[in-house]
Each structure stands twice: as structure tokens, then as C-alpha cells.
Amino acid sequence: MESLHHKTALVTGAAKRIGRSLALNLAVAGADVAITYNASRAEAEATADALRKHHVRALAVECNVRNQESVQAAVETVAREFGRLDILVNNAGTFETAALEAISLTQWDKMFETNTRGPFLVAQTAYPHLRRAKGRIINIGSLGGLHPWPTHGHYCTSKAALHMLTQTMAKAWAPEISVNCVAPGMIVNGEVDPAYEHFANKTPMQRNGTPHDVAEAVLFFAQGPHFITGQILSVDGGLGL
After folding, report:
1. Could you read off the pLDDT of 160-180 as tens digits, one per residue?
2. Among 98, 97, 96, 77, CA closest to 35
């Protein structure tokens, strides 16, 4: 497994929840970590402080992944401050429950602008830095991008598109950059809401996933063989089987 010491990672949407866990796990492994936030500035600064406790450099940068100028400014800030960029984790995303027949055009466009176009813009902007470093891109997809959920049509479709984007980038940007995707299933943080308990009962591993499960999968793609590319790795305890 490749050491992450002297490597720089950028994790989008990492002020809290799963993104925070991804960033912390990379820091524990020795990487300097930059995170982006949109509206959660206080949480992002707190996460950056937590990252520094692992004796790495950390930076919180404001970024709206739906805005090209904001993305360009954020990526260039990270590259300038750290001097390099080795790992990009496209975590920023949005989730919504809605009946398919009731989804508005605004809802549909916002979902794709965040979950599909956002990762494309960040990756495209980071491309020169990652190519120079022979780096890695790890997209955060979803089990919903592999299996249709009738009350999440726009979400599922946006994540399915992200999975295809992952494989397209893997072919287009090889051999310099490896590109993979982690597709979480039902992920819970802390106490399990009784409403989600039935997912655990349906899961072969008999529990729901945790942010740490997702973080460990991301770390595998960040540290494992650069030769592995274009893969969609489900982290669902077998729920999708």
C-alpha cells in the first residue's frame, strides 16, 4: 500500500457527516488534507482543526461545486497552498426523496448539477495537477446508482451517471490518473433510527454501514495499486445482492 505521507488530498463537501470521516481517515494515514464547504463554514473550520491534530497540514476552502468559477478558485487555492495535488475525493452531493411524477425541472437540474456536473467540474479543474502527480480520483457514488429506488428517481439517475463518468475518466485519463468510485449503501452515523432498522435486517452482514466503512474503502483506492482503475465498489454489506 502506498504511503500517503507528503501527499495532498482534496475532499469536497467534507465539513461534516461522511465527508468528515473520509478526510480524517486520510489524515490518519499521513496525507495533508484540504476540504471544501458550501454553507457550513463553522463545521469546516472545526474539521480542519481536527485534521491538524494528526500532525498534517489542513485547509478549509469555500466552494460551490455547481459554480465553475467557485470550483476553479478552490482548486487553485489548494494547489497553491500545498504545492501539489495527489488525491481528489468527489464527495459533495445532495439527496432528496420525491415521487417521480412530482419531480420538478428545478429539482432535477439541481440534483445533476451537484451530483454529476460537480464532480466533473472539480476533476476537470484538478486534472493538470493530478496528471503531474500521477494521482487518483475517488468519486462517491451510491447503491442507488446501481439499483433503482422508485422514490429517488433523480438521485439514482444522477449517481448512475457519476458511475459512468468514473469509468469514462478512467479510460480518458489513463495511465497517469487512476479513477474509481465507492458506492455506499445504507450508511448511518451513531444511533440507528428505528425507521432504518429494516435495512439492517435485509442486509446479509446484519447491520447498516458506517462512515468509517466508506472511509476505509476510499483509503483503499487512495493507497492501493495505481493499476486498479474504473471500478465501482459497493460498500453495502451485501444489501444490493
Report:
1. 999 999 999 999 999 999 999
2. 77
